[in-house]
Amino acid sequence: MKSEAVNGNENVNASASANANANANANANGFASGSNRPYLLLTPGPLTTSETVKEAMLRDWCTWDNDYNELVQSIRSRLVHLATNSPEIYTAVLMQGSGTFSVESVIGTVIPRDGKLLVLTNGAYGKRIAQMASVYGIATSVLDFGETEQVRASDVEQRLQEEVDITHVAIVHCETTTGMLNPIADVAAIAKAHGKTVIVDAMSSFGGIPLDVHELQIDYLISSANKCIQGVPGFGFIIARTEALAGCAGQARSLSLDLYDQWSAMEAGGGKWRFTSPTHVVRAFDQALRELELEGGIAARHQRYKANQELLVNGMRSLGFCPLLQSKVQSPFITAFYYPQSIEFSFGELYARLKAAGFVIYPGKISAADTFRIGNIGEVYREDIAKLLQIIEDECFW
Ligand SMILES: *Cc1c(COP(=O)(O)O)cnc(C)c1O
After folding, report:
1. Which helix (H) or strand (E) holds 168?
2. Domain 26-51+297-395 part of CATH 3.90.220.20
3. Residue 200 gets which letter from DSSP?
4. In testing the pocket of ligand 1, which one of 203, 230, 237 has its CB within 8 Å of the most ligand atoms?
5. How large a percentage of the chain has pLDDT more than 70?
6. Is the pTM value of this prediction over 0.85?
7. How far is 46 from 133, CA to CA, in rounded Å?
8. Which GO terms label this protein's molecular function in UniProt (predicted)?
9. At 35, is the pLDDT very low, low, confident or very high (cuts 50, 70, 90)?
10. Atom of ligand 1 nearest to the CA of 227
11. Beta strands 168-172; 197-201: pairing state
12. Burial of 269 (0-12, 13-18, 19+ CB in 10 A)
């Protein structure tokens, strides 16, 4: 293990091209030599992480001493600073489980018994929020925009006028189902003008696109370790307006997903989790945050993702693939493509050929059209996208 690398002193770009070179000579395990990577994940998460993030997990951590709790506190504070220039107004809570658990901890905790949630949906993740509310018996209003239309702020305004008993509004920032970016600024402004609490699932966008939760008037923003921050899966986090969360005691409909209790235990215990924390994942996340900083922060990472995505779409278009979404609503994280017209085309075949060549892509997730998806977040660089495009061109069997 390279200890200087674990301390975060390694240039992330240098390590990426080392990976890319190593990839050329796969060893007997099918892994690139000198790498723990059998293939590059072009998926929305779990995604390909750096060697140094993986190495950070090669140590067992105890959770009852200050070293570990200070690490947790530092992560919470760094997350708040990534989310806003007004860090004194917000707090961060870490929650065990995948991203869905964190979303559920918000939905199950912050809406009072007499509250009503408006869920804006245009894909599977918005629908999942509505499903959570239904499981908990929370009064819910759903405004659905289909699968390929952006959420429309004017429709939200109308619904809020029609149903004045709505107290909370939930929206997905990047609907990973299609790669659609939703207009969270417009929606939050309207919700706030009506005095509502704003919940944003920014799972696949936070860390990969500049935003400020205070400027956007977001009360709760949810993301997870294994997306644009480029950590490994195991916990999610909630950036909460402290004053809003402080009013949620005793409201949770679940014990383990009680966001208020998780927060107050972390505050009282100086970084202590209520139940066993995913220590290795937390340590890897700390390393991932260092690497985000080394890359130049969220703005620099956004530029890399954007360049990756543009290279991908332009290259795919020239190979005859048509993206599902118009470019003005397309996120820089994941892109859905229609199947080509040819009857010879089989997604399973393309998937298998690309996997054998070192790239894992993603099936589509919408009902209206046959699509597949290619993510470009994680430890993924221009040369990786260029290589992928070359392989698709070479393998072109349809
Ligand atoms: C990944 C993701 C989630 C969480 O999914 P998990 O499988 O629980 O990690 C939630 N919302 C969006 C928009 C996502 O992209």
Report:
1. strand 168-172
2. no
3. E
4. 203
5. 91
6. yes
7. 26
8. 2-aminoethylphosphonate-pyruvate transaminase activity
9. low
10. 1
11. parallel
12. middle
Confidence band (pLDDT; 50, 70, 90) for 244? very high
**Does the annotation flag 373 for ligand binding?**
yes
> How far does the centroid of ligand 1 lie from the alpha carbon of residue 394, in Å?
33
pLDDT tens profile 69-108:
999 999 999 999 999 999 999 999 999 999 999 999 999 9
Torsion of CA 170, 176, 178, 179, to 10 degrees: 100
Let me know the angle formed at the C-alpha of 69 by 268 and 272, rounded to the nearest 5 degrees: 40
Distances 148 to 98, 215, 252, 328, 376 between C-alpha atoms, Å: 26, 28, 34, 12, 20
- Per DSSP bridges, beta strands 220-224 and 362-363 are unpaired
Residue 274 has which token pair? 């209520």
Summary count for the chain: helices (H), strands (E): 14, 14
Domain ranges of the chain: 26-51+297-395, 57-294
Q: Which CATH number fits domain 57-294: 3.60.21.10, 1.10.150.120, 3.40.640.10, 3.30.1360.40?
A: 3.40.640.10
pLDDT mean over 226-246: 98
The helix, strand and coil proportions of the chain, stated in percent and rounded to the nearest 5, come to 40, 15, 40
> Other C-beta atoms within 10 Å of 326: how many?
10
Tell me the C-alpha distance between 266 and 366, whole Å. 39
Residue having the nearest C-alpha atom to atom 2 of ligand 1: 203
* Tens of pLDDT, residues 202-223: 999 999 999 999 999 999 999 9
The predicted structure's pLDDT at residue 389 = 97
Report how far residue 176's alpha carbon sits from residue 336's, in angstroms, rounded to the nearest whole number: 9
What DSSP designation does 89 have? G
